[in-house]
Amino acid sequence: MEPTSNENDAVRRRMNQLRRKAEKRRGLVTSSIDNLSPRDVRRLAQDLQTHQIELEMQYEELLTAQTERETLHRQYVDLFEFAPVGYCTLDAQGLVQQLNLRASQLLGAPRGAVLGRRFAQYVALGDERAHFYAFLQRVLAADASQSCELEMQRPDGSTFFALLEGVRLGPEEGAPRCRLALTDDTARRRAVADLAASEQKFRALFEESADAAVLLRDFTIVDCNQAALTMLGATRREQVVEQPALLLSPERQPDGTLSAQRLVQALEQALGRGSYRYEWLRHRFTGEEIWQEIVLTPMRVHGELVQHAVWRDITEQKRLDQRLRDSELRFRTVFEQSSDGMLLLEDGRYVDCNAAALHLIGAQRREQLVGQPAEVCMPEQQPDGRRTAEWFADHVETARREGSLRCETLMQRFTGEEVLIEGVLTPIELPGQPMLTHICWRDVTERRRAEQRVQESETRLSTALQAAELGVAQWNFVTDEVFFDARARHMFGLPADEAPLTFPDIRRLLHPDDRERVEAALQRAVAEHLPVEMDQRVVLPDGTVRYIVSSGQVAYSPTGQALSMTGVVQDVTEKKLVAQRLQESEARLSTAVQAAELGIGIWNFDTQLFYVDARARHMFGLPAEGPDLSFDELLAVVHPLDRELAAGALQRAATGDGVLDVEVRVQHPDGTVRHVCANGQVMYDEAGHPVRMSGVLHDVTQSRLAEQRLRESEEQLRTALSAANMGVGLWETQPQQVVVDASAAEIFGLGEGPGRYPAAGLSGLLHPDDLPGVEEQIQRSLQNHLAFSLNVRVLRPPMAELRYVRISGQALYDDHNQPGRVVSVVRDVTEFRRANLRLRTSEERLRLALQASQTGVFEWSFENDELFWDERTQAIFGRPYEDRRQSFNAIRAAVLPADAAAVAEALTTTIRDGVPFELEHRIVRPDGSVRHVASTGQVHYDEAGQPQRLAGLIRDVTERRRAQEELNSKNRLLDHILTTIPVVLSRVAPDGTLQEVVGAGLRRLGVADNAITGRNVFEAWPQLTPYIQRLLAGEKVQFVGEPPRRGEQTYFQNYGFFDEEKQSGVLFGIDVTETHQANARLAADAAFLQGLVSNIQEGIMAFDAELRVTEWNYLMEQFLEVKRAAVLGQPISKALPAIDIPRNHDILRRALAGEAQTYYNVSFSRREGVFDAAFVPLRDAQGAVAGVLGVIRDVTERNRLMEEATRLRLQREKEVLSAIMHTQEDERKRIAEALHNGVGQLLYAAKLHLYNQPVDEAHRASALGLLNEAIKSTRTISFELTPNVLEDFGLKTALEEICKRIPQQNLAVHLNVGVLPEPLPRLLETAVYRIVQELLNNVIKHAQAREAFIYVEVQNQVLHASVEDDGAGFDVATVTQKHGGIGLTGIQNRVSLLGGRLDIRSKPGRGTTITIELPLTTPEQPAVG
Questions:
Q1: What is the CATH number of domain 881-969?
Q2: Mind telling me which residue stretches traverse the membrane in this protein (predicted)?
């Protein structure tokens, strides 16, 4: 090793001192030697001998020093040669003058081959060499050490990354030189790359996750993925990142807890448990509320505590839960707010009840009833002697067996009062739950008391009849027997206990003059279905003549056969009751008219005045109150153009020429015109003379306006087709003919013009090559109910001219779902195709020319400063392509400022003088890079000579300019070089004493050279004790040490050996802190990623670009039953042959192409269940796709829970609805019986009594007419509530009876009932009857139909029923969105209850068809009956 400058200086100073001493001594001797005395001579000789000895000793010291120097030189040569760092010395031209063994190994060439050559020859070509020369200049120009990272290339072509640290040698070394230290930095660079890849993989997992993910630190959001931004409705990351964790959260959560307090609790739970799941209410930036399920997981990253939070949007789940709760609340509301007592019974004890049940038995608290046995508040024994517990258990069992049971029992309120309760027991079965019994309590105490009062009333009636001496008689036409009660017998002079009478017996008692009249009146009443109202004289046996006033009614069978006649005499006690019933009947009539929004009009023929009610006056635009109208006043409100029509219709109806049915326009005083439909009929008196015309009026303005808008829309369509030069065709599949209009005939060259043509003839005009494809596509469209659009070639006659035609169409289907007609639109696109072809050809030639020359096109319009530049021009300017026009400033701003003046001058000259624009200049791209471009252009002028636009071409000539400048760039060096690599050299004595510690690496430790020399290494660096012991034992060591330092921890890669000659250990350390830190971060990130992958509740798999498996977590092992070790590093097709199918290949191929994909509810192949899958591309640091990340989420349980919740909710709804419907039907039956047996009989008795009263005949006739209407309405309501014919004769007879009751003039109903099994379940039979009844009511009220068809049949244990009409129809979607309308909600509920299906098909103006399908039995609803 060469001596240092300090050592040379010390040697020279020592020699100079010796020389001066020698000359001084020599001067002493030579100057006075002749004058010395012998004594002085002897002393001088002694001194000379002494100096001689000193010189000898000094010589020996010099020899020893030289030996030590040579030894040290060999040691330092060894350190220099075998150091783990390469060293080389370069001159100012970069020639290698000296290098050690490690440097030659790194450079991959023998030392001799490297010496004298340029170091740059071992630097990779390109910018790397320029960087090296700049580094060399910095080293030679700076006093401090410089460093640089370069890519090196060995002679064999292999490359590595080297860290160069250089320092300039002192001027005493002669010509400028520098010494470089080379370290192989490839491993560190790879570690950094691996760290970046790991970070990219984690970032991809973080960013591309389907779930929103955020990172929290100190209650602040420090990062988030795109899914989180989407969930919050954010458009920029700044809206979320660096925002508080309570971003968009309300002050309090729905449970009342402060959001801040709730967040602190969640963080504490997560720290305690390792992970914590909770729900959170937040708002989007749009203000919309969202519910989140948050999984919070704490973790440490680089020693810092952060929280990883996964957000999942559970708003929809919350809404479903809320709807489920709302549904339960609705049923709970029905349960709680029902006026009847509602209870649930389980295992003989009440588990729930409503307030009505508590009120019914006088309870104050629920505990008085809930949890109590079923016989609470009941007597110990029932009236029949049975124990109440046994009696109740038997009734519950009967209800479960029969489906429902009604019973009565006596209960005692908690107040001690007795109450009679009617109970309806209905069993409810819920899957997986104990059997429940729904009990409906109804207090029938008052009803029983009312029945008792009715009985008492009947007794009073009998008493009243007896007091009024009214007799009752009944004549049976079948047996000809006549029954008289005691009073009637007394009236006719017959004994009270005589045998039964016959009509001849009664006839003999009549006065001879009255017999024929009585018989005629009876026959007329029977034949014309009239009530019997007559008086006759009776001759008693004693000859007394009595006048009897008889009133009676004939009873008929369903076939119209007279069965009997019942009558009463002189009942005056019910006079007031008749008046009261009359008022009630009038009130019901008024309510019905008001509900139908109808006006009433009456034309009195005697006074010739018209009475109109308030609603009718409103239709006419008249005040609500006013006098009756005359004929002229009525016609005055009619539109002038309709007055003749209105007058004629009224006159015809008044003269008996049909009923009144007319629609006219009415003009209001404010000019508004309304359409009013009037229907009426003439009323006659007993003599057959017309007395008045009564009718109703209906405002139909909205219907007429809708019809007008439809006509206008059709006219607009025809106008649009004509303007677009389109033709219209109608293909009738039977009989295979096509109807075309004039435009279509012209397009196809049909000389006959518009009309009907055979379909085969038009097909013959198509090009033969197009015909098969056209037929196939049309047939496929007809089969799939799809519209079609075809481009075909037509050989237009007479010269077979080739034309291109576009045909678009849609099929219309008949009732059997078969295509009946096809409507199509045709358009001749021949010229359009030819123009497009010419344009494409021209554009393709221009595109190929520009592409070949790498030239872009631009055009600048001077008038509006608009710039058009194509994709290649924008790419030259470094811009992403935007298909929109911009200002020319976009180009001006990109010109390098130094070239801006030249460009502006050239443009001015071109525009002013009209010379071509040719210029080469520089531009600055948005990324800051400078490019050289060559632009050429020409200005275009208008007819007036004014410049209009500049069109030109532009090319990027940067590479050409760089090639020109590359020869000169070799002499320019960069002025920045990195410092020498920090290393530490230590020498350790056998006892551990540090003999020497030097090196630039000490600066990181804050220690000067040899500052710790003399200390024991085991005390200075105790952590190095094992390695130093092995070193001092003679072993070579290599390890990473961590010397103590305040602040940041440092790491040194140490290499050591034992110097046998010096008996000391030599240790060479390189500062690898940054590499170690990078490795630590990589390990931490890998551990974090592995922990995330291992704990996430989703299957994670990752593949590299060759589709080799790089990650496979524990859930993937469970999903596909393949262990992680079996697939890692293997191609996916080889590791899992079972999933090696084209579809999976396509998914991975698309992901590698950069496309993110998500699939929902995919079935597992190796296990039961379904999953959601997401595949996203993984990108490297340069943004290129380096692999694929797959995320699999098992959603089987989620789907099952949602289905189970829906099924249970529907089951509960069905059970409760079933119980309610049973109760409704029973209540209807009870009301019908009460109407028929109570109100009906009282009305009938009132009618009989009216005959016997001395009342004016006109009032009698009016009162009797109203009574007849009331009796008829009572019977109709009774029949509709509970048709006994349904229970007695079955569904078919009941439906026939419904049809008979509908007047043919209102609606013609056609019924077709197939063979039905006997018996049908009672609930099913009742449901079908009610549905058909409701649908017919809807047809009558809303459809305006003339005919209706009903079909009922059973096929494959399914009952099919449909109701069709030819009425106005309606829009199904609109009616469905209104949640019902025209009774559809009730029908849908019944069908759903029975597990059936409802189908509605209707279009405005085309009638309606409603079809239901009901299974005869369902698992949820057993057949009853």
A1: 3.30.450.20
A2: none
